Recover the amino acids of this structure.
């Protein structure tokens, strides 16, 4: 069967697209979690990090866990992912948007005692945007529920 | 689509369409910017810095939509040999590059006060930077092919545009596939859900529409200018041969 040249080119381009998509899928499969920007507390508890290995730890700052240490410059807080939690220490300034109950990324390494020593703290923003009045309302609603 | 293969017929439509997209686009953009800067309340956590999203989100969407346009133009050039496809690709590319650059710049300016860093190599930021570099490569490739004359008809650029389109799903799903510093998507078009409060959302819809119309207007102007340049070159060539 003879195909018109136009259809022949269409088949050719489609085949190239499919091949390209598959190649990209394979490449991404190979990358997998190596392209991840941070590891989660669960992965640390599962032993994914060696002590001393530099990494980024990401998760939520546990409510009520933030405390000033005795040396006056360091803080200690707990980062959780809803399942496991890891303690983090940091000697330095926290970003403005650092909040308990909010997302955070800590850059540093795992200490031998299982505490993550952060050289740098980044605040992670979530996808919610709302006016301040609504925030108060929601907090009020939560308080009433309690 | 081949009805518009004739440049004269295309120009007949493109001329009025430029005005219809340019002025409403500028109007919507102005209304959205004023609404976003002065009317909406600040974000509960980020305060006023969240207002940059009224520029950042539309430019990100158009940076990606622009490359989709390049890929579609590439396919219609390779398969159907549409005479306007190469022209459209050349017209879209620098505009898409500019929008992508604006997206990267506004994101960086927002990232400093919010995250505490200008730049991080996470999945979303890196794939968007790659899109910007792809645009620059496309511009170089397409203009090199144009200077070489009618032989190749922008075939290399068309193939490059189709191959580069693989980056678009990577940008979109980067925040789903990998842990990233960049937040997940706020607006789900498929489900019609938004985690941006309606009080903060409406100027975004205006600027998205405004930026999109402006994008179309600039592309139409560039296509018309390109056609005019081709006509001028042909006339000069003819005059040169007549004089000789």
């Amino acid at each position: 069967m003879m195909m018109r040249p136009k259809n022949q080119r269409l088949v050719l381009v489609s085949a190239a697209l499919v091949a390209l998509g598959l190649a990209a899928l394979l490449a991404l499969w190979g990358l997998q979690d190596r392209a991840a920007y941070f590891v989660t507390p669960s992965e640390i508890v599962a032993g994914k990090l060696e002590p001393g290995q530099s990494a980024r730890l990401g998760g939520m700052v546990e409510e009520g866990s933030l405390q000033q240490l005795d040396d006056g410059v360091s803080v200690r807080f707990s980062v959780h992912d809803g399942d496991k939690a890891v303690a983090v220490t940091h000697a330095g300034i926290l970003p403005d948007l650092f909040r308990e109950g909010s997302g955070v990324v800590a850059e540093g390494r795992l200490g031998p005692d299982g505490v993550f020593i952060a050289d740098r703290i980044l605040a992670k923003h979530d996808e919610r945007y709302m006016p301040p009045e609504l925030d108060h309302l929601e907090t009020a609603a939560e308080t009433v529920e309690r | 689509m081949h009805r518009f293969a004739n440049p004269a017929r295309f120009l007949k439509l493109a001329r009025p369409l430029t005005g219809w997209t340019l002025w409403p686009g500028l109007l919507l953009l102005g209304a959205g910017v004023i609404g976003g800067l002065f009317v909406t309340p600040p974000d509960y956590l980020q305060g006023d810095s969240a207002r940059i999203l009224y520029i950042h989100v539309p430019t990100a969407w158009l940076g990606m939509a622009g490359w989709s346009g390049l890929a579609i133009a590439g396919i219609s050039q390779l398969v159907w040999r549409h005479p306007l496809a190469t022209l459209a690709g050349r017209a879209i590319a620098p505009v898409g590059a500019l929008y992508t650059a604006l997206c990267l710049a506004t994101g960086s300016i927002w990232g400093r006060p919010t995250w505490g860093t200008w730049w991080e190599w996470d999945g979303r930021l890196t794939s968007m930077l790659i899109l910007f570099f792809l645009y620059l490569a496309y511009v170089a490739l397409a203009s090199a092919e144009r200077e070489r004359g009618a032989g190749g008809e922008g075939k290399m650029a068309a193939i490059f545009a189709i191959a580069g389109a693989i980056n678009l799903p990577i940008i979109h799903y980067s925040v789903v596939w990998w842990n990233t510093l960049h937040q997940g998507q706020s607006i789900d078009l498929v489900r019609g859900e938004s985690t941006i409060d309606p009080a903060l959302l409406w100027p975004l819809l205006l600027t998205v529409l405004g930026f999109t119309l402006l994008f179309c207007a600039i592309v139409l102007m560039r296509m018309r200018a390109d056609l005019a340049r081709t006509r001028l070159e042909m006339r000069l060539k003819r005059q040169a041969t007549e004089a000789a």
In short: Strands of chain B lie at 187-188, 193-194. Helices of chain B lie at 7-39, 53-80, 83-114, 123-148, 155-164, 167-177, 198-243.
